[in-house]
Amino acid sequence: MSETAYVKTEVSESIGTITFFHPSHNSLPGNILRELAEAIQAAGKNEEIRVIVLRSGGERTFCAGASFNELIGIEDFETGKAFFMGFARVINACRTCPKIILGRVQGKAVGGGVGVAAAVDYCFATKFAEVKLSELAVGIGPFVVGPAVQRKVGTSAFSQMAINATTFYSAEWARSKGLYMDIFDSAAEMDAAIFDLARTLVDSNPEAQSLIKKVSWEGTDHWDELLEQRAEMSGRLVLSDYTKTVLAKYRQG
User: Fold this and answer.
1) Half-sphere exposure of residue 152, counting CA atoms within 13 Å on the CB side?
2) Quick check: 238 and 87 in contact, CB under 8 A?
3) What is the pTM for the complete model shown?
4) What is the CA radius of gyration of the chain?
5) Are 134 and 165 in contact (CB under 8 A)?
6) Looking at the domain 6-190, which fold is it?
7) Rounded distance, CA 39 to CA 69, Å?
8) Burial of 114 by CB count in 10 Å (0-12 exposed, 13-18 middle, 19+ buried)?
9) What are the tens digits of pLDDT across the range 214-243?
10) Taking a C-beta distance cutoff of 8 angstroms, is the pair 91, 41 a contact?
11) What residue spans define the domains of the chain?
12) How far apart are CA 49 and CA 10, in angstroms?
């Protein structure tokens, strides 16, 4: 029996855990991106939730990025833009959420998955959580996720990943650049650390936390417009002859 994609929110001890899952290595089709953005927005408004944990299901890949099945099927600019706006909305939902979001990255993060990891406020990872911005390899570019990733790792490291698009960078490399705050040998150790910090935040002043988040995201008020412009860039490139040729190989494979 094939597993079904989902986004779900669970609340326990004032901790809201949002989990997304897709059987294809947690790749993100448009409907899952939409549900994920809506779940983050809803958790931000839920008075029962004091802190949010964002995670994916499964034990291996955190997020394989965009759904190749949907990329292959894009035939016009509006559809392309709409698809990439899904990632824009998830990033902006994290950015504007008034509550601190803790990220849980148990395995590899690729493309849009790196963007999701970069959009949370404090990110935990295991030693298996390698990162790769693979977009250039298929003729696009990490334009929508770029602002979030660059904000965390800096221009030099972002450019390195964006240009060398076929290379995975280690979890330790990502930690040294500021994408991950802590790295653990196992998911169990990581989960214990996440719970400890989440409990501390639950007992901390919510107003102060909201202000800390607002200060840490200063200078991003224009991101609604910026990420839409970036989605348009990607929406055009996905229609290019080069990208169509590359994607066709995946269809044939």
Assistant:
1) 26
2) no
3) 0.95
4) 17
5) yes
6) 2-enoyl-CoA Hydratase; Chain A, domain 1 (3.90.226)
7) 24
8) buried
9) 999 999 999 999 999 999 999 999 999 999
10) no
11) 6-190
12) 10
